[in-house]
Design goal:
This protein is mainly alpha-helical and 431 residues long. The protein folds into two domains: 4-75, no CATH class; 80-425, no CATH class. It has 23 helices and no strands. The protein starts with a helix and ends in a 6-residue tail after the last helix.
Length: 431
Amino acid sequence: MVSHTEVVATALFAIAIIHTFSVPVFARLANRGGPHAGLWHLLSEVEAVFGIWACVLFAWMGLTLGMKGAIEYLDTRNFTEPAFVFVIMVVAASRPIIELVRLLVDFVSRLLPMAREVSRFFVIMTLVPLAGSLITEPAAMTLAALLLRQAYFRRPGQDGFKYLTVGVLFVNVSIGGVLTAYAAPPVLMVAQTFGWDTTFMATHFGWRAVTAVLINGLILSMICRPFLLNGSLGVQEGEDGEENESKKRSPSPPAVMAVHVLFLMGIVLASHHMHIFMALLVLFIGYTQAYKRHQSPLLLREGLMVGFFLAGLVVLGGLQQWWLQDLLGGLSPYVLYFGATALTAVTDNAALTYLGSLVEGTGDLWRYMLVAGAVTGGGLTVIANAPNPAGFSILKGCFGDGTISPLRLLASAAVPTMVAVVMFLLPNSFS
């Protein structure tokens, strides 16, 4: 029997999705000014959408179930992932980590047999997302988004290029973390239940993901190649921009970079233990205060907003099981694949795979198609994959009206998503 709370939660979840796609409207209203410009600006913050409607749900539960019942529901939710994404964003976006990654990107790009301007862009769009299999997808998204903002997104306009790039970035990060069993949220949710380890992920998902990421990055790089070569894309020497400003500062000492890498590794290893990685964050903040001269302002506001977004998704998504699980259980493997790809666009893919893991009597092919569909559709919208709000928060200010249109993002991610769809449909041992 479906409870009234579940029905209300589903209605609010639908309203939150509609609100997400309406963000550009609120952004334009905010830009006009007026007495309510502050309210319109709040409603135009995508990172706040699900948190706002989760607060509405909590108020409703407080009125109908009593505050004790509402608090008990919150106590049953697992907020480890939102907290982890916040922490990893703050650490990965620190100046020494960004400088180290930029050095590595420059080194790899010099090894590729293509023009330097093109190879560097290609490496950011491919190897950084694939690194998410080691450092987790949220960290890879944060690093790639910051590198793109510094080197390519600073010029006003050029929204066509920016949307194409963000569409490929979101898709590549979503599929780029499946080479291991711990880095991609939708894989992490089912790996233990399905008995999948890193060897299984690398052999069944990894090579498909790598191929799709490289194809997507290569297609985008070839499309942008003339503009990268003639200097119409990217920040040039002497031009105002974060990257050139950072080059003018003295580089962080190797010892400082090493300490930051150790903090990053510790947080990744403790990703399932909130009390440990939060303690590491406090120590990290203390360290950055002790060596301010080697630091830039930490990404605290953006990280907190992303954490708020994901926490709201956890609260609202926790009451969608009544319709979503039955829907998944009634689908054949190949129908499930396309259904999961589509459903991921309007639900968090980690929640989708978790609910699918609760369906009894499923076979290996069904399970593969569930996870493959969830990661394939993870770049279509900002809510499809947990790292997407991080990239959205970092890059949105570079677009017109200060926000990213969900519909244009959906259109931009369609082609790279289709490339991933084809790769994960290739015959496998379960077929």
